[in-house]
Amino acid sequence: MPFASLGLSPALVHAAEKAGFVAPTPIQAGAIPAILQGADLLGAAQTGSGKTAAFALPLLQQLQQLQLSATQGPGGPRRVRALVLVPTRELAAQVGEVLRSLAQHLQQPLKVAIVFGGVSINPQMLGLRGGADVVVATPGRLLDLVDHNALRLSAVAHLVLDEADRLLDLGFTEELQRVLALLPAQRQNLFFSATFPAAVQALADGLLKNPVRVEVPHTPGNEPAIEQRSIAVDASRRTQLLRHLVKEHNWSRVLVFVATQYAAEHVAEKLYKAGIYASPFHGGLSQGARNQVLQEFKDERWQVVVTTDLAARGIDIAQLPAVVNYDLPRSAVDYVHRIGRTGRAGETGVAVSFVTADAEAHFRLIEKRQHLTIPREQIAGFEPTETAAPASVTDPQGTGGIKGKRPSKKDKLRAAAAAAGSAPDAHKKGP
Ligand code: AMP
After folding, report:
1. Rounded to an integer, what distance in angstroms lies between the CA atom of residue 111 and that of residue 28?
2. pTM to 2 decimals?
3. Is 325 in the pocket of ligand 1 (CB under 6 A)?
4. Which of 173, 188, 215 is the last residue of a domain?
5. Do 191 and 243 share a structural domain?
6. The total number of structural domains that make up the chain
7. What is the pLDDT of residues 293-336, one digit of tens each?
8. DSSP code of 72?
9. Which residue's alpha carbon is nearest to atom 16 within ligand 1?
10. CATH number of the domain that 123 lies in?
11. Do 206 and 232 reside in the same domain of the chain?
12. Can you give the residue range of the structural domain that contains 295?
């Protein structure tokens, strides 16, 4: 089915072609005609499914059709016509860029403003002068801008919640409610989420009016081709094993997930000293530094980026052949998000998890929740020798480490003390 058959204007069909999209993905085929008809939409889809273009293309078309300049119409000069709320700064930048690059092909220019926290508010205030057709925002900074009277939300005709589950996970519930209270009652609502726990479903139920539902089921046909591997290894030998794998496979880019900002710095430094271009990426870096690392990773100036779960969602790096779980993710959901960074848009990818003796029970639970068995491999020269510490030290509840909620600071301190006393960590015995 070609893009033209979805009801898009020739300019936007051309924009999709220029972006390299040959045929619509399932979420695009389902969502675009419904959005163009003005319906509310409930999209159940992961990142990697093409969901950004699924809302960006019809949104731009509707804004274009109204043919109003940003300064006309209700709401005055600081009005916003479409609002896209996203959970993270990186996703704001990414979604904003997709909208801008598609909008380039329109006859009438449309203004797309991108706003997020962690950087100075002044340029964003200046950028909003005269209003904007689309604002892509994280909720906290959006409210700051409203408080500064830099924009008005009373004329928003289209609202997109992107990665709604992540917005709630990150604790944006209150901010979301404040934003929603500022919007006019009459508007189109587009709601995208990868998962639908009760709180997300309740938010969708409260927001959407007779939504068209588009679900992209997890069938082998549309599942990205990600080969999942797990390697049994001693905790103290993970950095060496990582070096070995990077060299052996000669991956052009590898995203390595670790548990802490400290580990991201430490592992990246060890790799760098061993002659591998590796950089850390985590929330402790300034926004400027984070943007730079991502850009340089995309430009292939870094071969390896060692990151916390900050990079687990939303981030789209085309042609990322490998993801390594140096430390296992806390939950099965995080596992899916991490490995979903590879194998995007029809490419193939490999996701390798390092499983230490202490993490074996935890990984088994992840496998169970995924309905998967990923046989433990052993790599010659890296055969494990450690056995698991008693459950009372590493996993007092015997849950394998999976809990319903994030660990408290106290939990983390306890775990760190236990790790320091029992299992040697990579930062003590590096390569
Ligand atoms: P998203 O799920 O929006 O993060 O998109 C994931 C990736 O798929 C991005 O790199 C897009 O450029 C790409 N993509 C989106 N739509 C298509 C399409 N119709 N054909 C091929 N690639 C696409």
Report:
1. 23
2. 0.62
3. no
4. 215
5. no
6. 2
7. 988 988 888 999 999 987 766 566 667 889 999 999 998 888 98
8. S
9. 50
10. 3.40.50.300
11. no
12. 225-394
